[in-house]
Design a protein that fits this description.
Shape: elongated
Structural class: alpha+beta
Radius of gyration: 46 Å
Number of domains: 3
Largest sheet: 6 strands, antiparallel
Oligomer: single chain
Distance between the termini: 149 Å
Order of helices and strands: HHHHEEEHEEHEEEEEHEHHHHEEEE
Strand content: 5-15%
């Protein structure tokens, strides 16, 4: 109530404030109730839409299952529901006995076609390698790697002198450089595949190793395609202005040389098809059959239409860092490989030089042995020797023990003191030839040397005289 002067009292102000706060609280309660009611309605709508979507997927699945049983190709999906239905249909059909048999037959036929394209390049490449024509083998190895149904291929890099192993990237939609490979590694990989080749009972050329690798790779690509459709974490967000789309990676089973392509889907689940013949700078939604055109986009086509990955800048920086690391690692790898190659080449040259040196030494040794044999026969025929001494000189020098050689030299030394000039000349020649033979035979440069003196004495025969080992001293010309 106002006071006696008509002014509102403190109690009046408190009452007004209380009423205002009550009104504000009521408004808040009304807002909360309305929000809850709206949320309840939205949830009901969402549940209804979810049930409708599930029902639609079931209808699509039934339709696609009937098509697959009849051997018909499935149409390119126009929205996410059709895409989900196709994933369920194919997985379900492949799990049946008939479906699995049909799938394996189709996969086997595709791999067989790949091998018929791969084999001529591989055979010609191996022939070039075996003839030493590595330069001629390089384009053939490249072509063979592109025909193999595998997610990697080789590309020769003239600058580094290595092959570059390229890997198909789902993220960038390109064949990206993975690592450097030496010619020996590339040739060995090709040789390993060709070693699996066989001739079947019917006379056909088959390669179980190639078929196994090709089948597993194609099956991995097929599974990967359906997993990518079903896993939003594998979708790549691309933006054009304020619009967001999703690029869903898919790898071609019909042509494994192609880089990764993408299904283009908007936020509402609508899929846009790519029809190159009707493109004309716009997106086309004209459906196409899988056997003709999958309606997919390459990453270059998406970028050309202004659809860019959201994290392109960050990925660009990461790619630059990765490229620097790869370049550094590759440089180190190249240095190590170059050093290893040089070491192997040096060892090869050293072996070749040593082999030629040994061959030359062996020819000289054989010549000396024949000369020694001839001079020994001349001495035996012209000198007055006992039967034992003649038999000793008749032993081939390379078959003599240290004792035999010592005895032969002692016999020849006697002739040096004789009066017959011819005998002294023959004795001198014999001793010189034996000295030269020993030097050649036991030279450190002769890698075929297996012992340091003459052949060991026969078991039980004495090798010493008066407790001293018999050795020929070329300086004095005596056995000491």
């Amino acid at each position: 109530m106002p006071d006696k002067w008509g002014r509102p009292t403190f109690k009046d102000g408190a009452d007004i404030a209380t009423q205002g706060m009550g009104l504000m609280n009521q408004m808040k309660r009304n807002d909360i109730y309305n929000a809850e009611l709206q949320d309840r309605n939205l949830r009901m709508q969402d549940r209804a839409k979810l049930r409708a979507d599930e029902e639609q997927v079931k209808n699509y699945t039934a339709e696609y299952s009937a098509m697959m049983k009849e051997g018909k190709e499935l149409p390119i999906p126009s929205n996410k529901l059709q895409m989900d239905a196709q994933t369920l249909t194919v997985h379900g059909f492949a799990a049946t006995e008939d479906g699995n048999a049909m799938l394996r037959t189709a996969q086997g036929a595709a791999v067989d076609r790949s091998y018929k394209k791969f084999r001529p390049y591989a055979v010609d490449a191996m022939a070039k390698v075996q003839s030493g024509d590595y330069a001629g083998a390089r384009p053939l190895i490249e072509a063979a790697s592109k025909e193999a149904p595998l997610p990697y291929q080789y590309k020769w890099d003239e600058g580094s002198g290595f092959y570059i192993e390229q890997f198909r990237s789902d993220k960038s939609g390109k064949w990206e450089d993975n690592r450097h490979v030496t010619e020996e590694e590339a040739t060995q990989a090709l040789s390993q595949i060709m070693q699996g080749e066989q001739v079947s009972d019917s006379g056909r050329i088959v390669n179980p190793y190639f078929y196994k690798q090709g089948f597993e790779s194609r099956e991995a690509s097929r599974q990967g395609n359906f997993e990518a459709r079903n896993d939003p974490k594998k979708w790549i967000p691309v933006k054009k202005g304020n619009e967001t789309f999703y690029a869903i990676p898919q790898n071609s089973l019909a042509d494994h040389k192609k880089a990764t392509e993408y299904i283009l889907m908007d936020e509402k689940g609508n899929i846009t098809h790519n029809n190159p013949s009707e493109f004309n700078g716009k997106f086309s939604s004209t459906p196409k059959r899988q056997g003709q055109n999958l309606g997919l986009f390459s990453m270059e086509e998406l970028n050309a239409k202004g659809l860019m990955p959201e994290n392109l800048d960050r990925e660009g920086k990461q790619a630059a860092i990765a490229h620097t690391k790869q370049t550094t690692a590759t440089s180190k790898q190249n240095m190590i490989a170059s050093k290893d190659a040089q070491v192997r080449e040096d060892a090869k040259v050293k072996r070749e030089v040593q082999s030629k040196r040994d061959e030359s030494n062996q020819k000289e040794i054989t010549g000396l042995e024949n000369s020694i044999k001839f001079v020994a026969s001349q001495i035996a025929s012209k000198a007055q020797l006992s039967p034992l001494e003649k038999r000793m000189l008749g032993i081939k020098v390379d078959k003599m023990t240290d004792e035999d050689l010592g005895n032969a030299i002692q016999t020849v030394n006697k002739l040096l003191k004789g009066k017959e000039p011819e005998q002294r000349r023959l004795a001198s020649n014999y001793l010189k030839l034996v000295d030269d033979w020993r030097k050649k035979r036991f030279s450190p440069n002769n890698s075929r040397q297996t012992f340091s003196g003459g052949l060991p004495a026969a078991k039980g025969s004495p090798q010493t005289a008066g407790g001293k080992r018999l050795r020929y001293n070329p300086t004095t010309g005596r056995v000491e």
